[in-house]
Design a protein that fits this description.
Length: about 150
């Protein structure tokens, strides 16, 4: 029975070690790393990051991050959530503006096409009227011209 207990304990211990080992390695790295602001403020001076001289500098760095210059290489991902939201907003407004201009252009094209079709109908109607009038005048001329010859 004791063999079964020790075998079961060793299996549990091995499973625990297998799961806890990566966590044990990752935890000290994150704890030792600290924040980027503390690392930048600590610098090569050898002072502690929480010293009274560094506190205003850390607060200044974390409160107002400086925007990255646009002349630098394009970044693959924005640095903050605010920048991402702003880019999404600007992209959304640009797409909206493009849709508006495209809609206006389509509307203008429809109007000009309508105007051209209307003009074609008017000219065709005018030509038909003129043909009818000239035809009537010619027939009248034939009738009246023939009657005048009889008299």
């Amino acid at each position: 029975m004791s063999e079964k207990i020790t075998l079961e304990m060793s299996r549990r211990r091995a499973l625990f070690m297998a799961l806890a080992a990566p966590l044990g390695l990752a935890l000290p790295f994150t704890v030792l790393r600290g924040s980027d602001a503390e690392a930048a403020a600590g610098g090569p001076g050898g002072r502690a990051a929480g010293s009274p001289d560094d506190r205003p500098q850390i607060a200044q760095q974390t409160a107002a991050p400086q925007p990255a210059p646009q002349a630098a290489a394009p970044q693959t991902a924005p640095q903050t959530g605010t920048e991402r939201r702003q880019r999404r907003r600007t992209a959304r407004t640009e797409r909206r503006q493009e849709r508006r201009t495209a809609r206006t252009e389509r509307r203008q094209e429809r109007r000009t096409a309508r105007k051209e079709r209307r003009e074609e109908r008017r000219t065709a109607r005018k030509e038909r009227r003129e043909e009818r009038q000239t035809g009537r005048a010619q027939r009248r001329e034939l009738r009246t011209g023939g009657e005048q010859k009889k008299q």
